[in-house]
Write a structure and sequence with these properties.
Rossmann fold; 4-stranded antiparallel sheet
Length: 757
């Protein structure tokens, strides 16, 4: 029913009531499961995943409990797929045991039916004996030590009885038989008294059963007597009903006869009205057919009138086109005259023999200089291209060397695949689906950790658990949950989440220089490189920034080191020491183990060489970028020279064409004179065209007048027919109303007649 529900009960909540389906069990189940209760306490399902809403993959219960000085917020996230739970206290991850301790400290007992009673456990509560109820009540409302004291008291009582038996045996051996007989008699009396009390209680319960039996016997006797009387009462009732029905039948026969006599004249009148109504309906249909025929003829006349209007409009349109055509001809004649005049003026002003040779020579000289400059640029481009090819060959060599270094990473991946196949499968899936995650995801730590010196790999591997060595590291809890689901592949992999606040830059409790005199040369963190989330997790979880690594010198003076430095974890050349202080005796206790041989981190990449190659690659990229810039500048310059070359060649072409301009103008003037002569011959007589159009329009108007007269006659006939039809419709309506009235009366009488029959 609910996706999200928030309940705020008061401090005295002791009952949850409501109709079926309103959510009582949702609240009760949330309280039980959210306070570390088992599904069996509720009595509905045996797995926590079955309490999540159908269709959802996850359910969350958050409960805030009053506690001084600050309230405590307990959160439980239930995963449906693998039926697991994640616990949080005040939004921080924790374990089930910690949650149970917090709840026990507040004296909350969801498994105690006297303190927490689900609906499905009411029957089980009713079956509790008095002793069980007493113990449950003590646990529920008493102080924590009350039930403990009660259990101790019962144990003391059992011991007391055992001691009494022993005492009796001793007295039997040391004293006379009279005292022993008295003790046995007292024990026998006590047992008989207890038996008597139990029998009295049993008799009280049997009294109620006997009373209920006698009451049932009285009811059965009364039922038997009434069953004997029932047939006589039923016969008398039916006989009276028979007499009443006979009288009603005779009366109904008389009423039926009267109704039939009254209905005969109404039937005859209805038939006459029906025949008259049908004759009127036939006349109305005839008039409607005549009106339809005349309306069709009117429509034809109107269409003919519209056609005549269109013919007149077409004549007007043709006349307008003739006028536009004549105006266009006059405009073309005027433009042609003006063009011929302009060309004649240009011919008059043009010199008979213009000297263009000096300009042509200047253009040729500039073209020669441009070609020389372009040759120099082509040479520079060739040199820069050769240098660029050399740089690209060097870049390829560096990339190949980096590939060799990456092969070491491939060896580490093969090691991972051989030892942890599920983790390797998850790694392949991660690399294909990195775009699905919101924040950075680090591969397994054994691939991400890079030792600065392979000899130190054993310290790191002995400090970090094997499970975490093959764990993926996430910056986001949400990303980690999505990764663990990953398409239901059911792979067994480990994943951890880096702390929200980075710990990668955390400082050690003291500088390493202070520990040099004990033989320590570095902290664990300085022995390897790792991505920021991995380093942050290791500093938070394993405190690698505060665990020093020593030498054989440290091993030789280990007792002094432990006493003076107060360090919790210490590494010597071949051993690991863990130091603890006893909470009871305050004594310092230390355990040491031999270091295992490194298995995962021995294949490391030379980070200095890799960094140097990456720097060289960056320098080559910068050089290539500079060469590309210079080449682009030369290409731009070459493009500008080509553009200038094209302009000069165009100028040279125009100078050559100016000599042919006079002949072209004389030829164009001759062509225009021929065109002008043709335009003058194509003149249109607008006055004659207008007279012809008026004659055609007059003939069409005469035809329109005849059509209008015929249309008027048709409309008059149609109006008269409509008047006649309206009169007939009014008569038909009156007759129909009378017919309906008679039929209504006939139907009412028919209903009475059928009822009477």
């Amino acid at each position: 029913t609910y996706d999200v529900c928030e309940v705020r009960p008061g401090p005295n909540l002791n009952m949850i009531v409501g109709a079926n389906g309103t959510g009582k069990s949702s609240i009760v189940c949330a309280i039980c499961l959210g306070l570390a209760g088992k599904p069996s306490f509720i009595g509905r399902a045996d797995k926590v995943g079955l309490f999540v809403k159908q269709g959802c993959l996850k359910g969350v219960v958050e409960i805030e409990l009053f506690k001084t000085p600050d309230n405590i917020v307990i959160t439980r996230e239930i995963q449906v797929v693998n039926n697991t739970s994640a616990w949080f206290i005040n939004r921080k991850p924790t374990t089930l045991k910690t949650v149970e301790e917090q709840i026990a400290a507040l004296n909350i007992q969801v498994d105690n039916l006297c303190q927490f009673l689900p609906q499905d456990k009411v029957g089980e509560f009713a079956k509790l004996s008095k002793i069980e109820l007493l113990e449950a009540t003590e646990k529920s409302i008493g102080p924590p030590e009350m039930y403990q004291f009660h259990c101790e008291l019962k144990n003391f009582r059992e011991k007391e009885r055992e001691l009494e038996v022993n005492i009796h045996i001793i007295e039997t051996e040391s004293s006379d038989c009279r005292e022993t007989s008295i003790i046995k008699f007292n024990n026998l009396c006590r047992d008989k008294t207890n038996s008597l009390e139990k029998m009295r209680q049993r008799i009280e319960r049997y009294k109620q059963d006997v009373e209920r039996y006698h009451e049932r016997k009285r009811h059965l006797d009364l039922i038997e007597m009434l069953e004997r009387k029932r047939p006589w009462v039923e016969y008398e009732n039916v006989r009276q009903q028979h007499e009443e029905v006979k009288q009603s039948r005779d009366q109904a026969k008389e009423e039926l006869k009267n109704l039939k006599e009254m209905q005969s004249p109404v039937t005859k009148k209805i038939q006459e009205t029906e025949e008259y109504y049908k004759s009127l309906d036939m006349k109305i249909r005839d008039k409607a057919a005549e009106i339809k025929d005349i309306s069709q003829k009117c429509k034809q006349k109107q269409d003919a009138l519209e056609m005549k209007d269109k013919q007149i409009e077409e004549i007007h349109q043709a006349l307008r086109m003739k006028k536009d055509e004549e105006m266009d001809r006059q405009r073309k004649i005027h433009n042609t005259h003006k063009m011929i005049e302009d060309w004649k003026n240009e011919l008059n002003t043009m010199a008979a023999c213009e000297n263009l040779q000096p300009q042509t020579d200047a253009v040729n000289n500039e073209l020669k200089k441009l070609q020389e400059e372009r040759a120099h640029i082509d040479s520079d481009i060739s040199d820069l291209t050769a240098e660029k090819m050399n740089q690209e060959r060097e870049k390829k060599r560096i990339i190949d060397r980096l590939g060799q270094l990456n092969n070491i990473m491939n060896m580490k991946e093969e090691n991972l695949k051989g030892r942890f196949r599920d983790t390797h499968s998850a790694l392949m899936w991660l690399r294909k689906n990195k775009d699905k995650f919101k924040k950075k995801v680090c591969e397994p730590m054994m691939l991400e950790i890079n030792m600065k010196d392979n000899r130190h790999a054993k310290y790191v591997e002995n400090h970090i658990s094997a499970n975490d060595m093959r764990a993926f590291v996430f910056e986001s809890q949400e990303d980690m949950e999505m990764f663990l689901m990953r398409d239901h592949q059911k792979l067994r992999v480990n994943a951890v989440c880096a702390p929200a606040e980075s710990c990668a830059e955390s400082l050690p409790s003291r500088p390493i220089e202070e520990l040099h005199r004990y033989g320590f040369f570095s902290y664990l963190r300085e022995l390897f490189d790792a991505p920021h989330p991995v380093m942050s997790y290791l500093c938070s979880q394993y405190r690698v920034h505060d665990v020093p690594v020593g030498t054989e010198k440290t091993r030789n003076m280990i007792e002094r080191v432990i006493q003076e430095t107060k360090l919790k974890q210490i590494y010597t050349a071949e051993e690991k020491y863990i130091v603890k202080v006893s909470a009871y005796t305050n004594l310092t206790l230390s355990t040491n183990t031999s270091l295992r041989v490194a298995q995962f981190l021995t294949s490391s990449v030379d980070t200095d060489e890799r960094r140097q190659l990456e720097n060289q690659q960056q320098d080559i990229n910068n050089t290539l970028k500079s060469l590309d810039t210079r080449l682009n500048t030369l290409f731009e310059r070459q493009k500008r020279l080509e553009h200038r070359d094209n302009e000069l060649r165009q100028q040279k072409k125009e100078l050559l064409e100016r000599g042919n301009r006079r002949r072209q103008l004389e030829s164009k003037i001759g062509v225009k004179y021929d065109s002008l002569k043709q335009l003058e011959q194509d003149a249109i007589n607008l006055e004659k065209e207008s007279q012809q159009a008026n004659v055609k329009i007059k003939e069409i108007n005469i035809q329109k007048a005849r059509l209008v007269i015929e249309l008027m006659h048709l409309i008059k006939n149609c109006v008269s027919l409509n008047f006649l039809k309206a009169d007939l419709v009014l008569q038909s309506t009156t007759v129909a109303a009378e017919k309906n009235r008679l039929e209504s009366e006939y139907k009412a009488a028919s209903v009475q007649l059928r009822a009477a029959e």
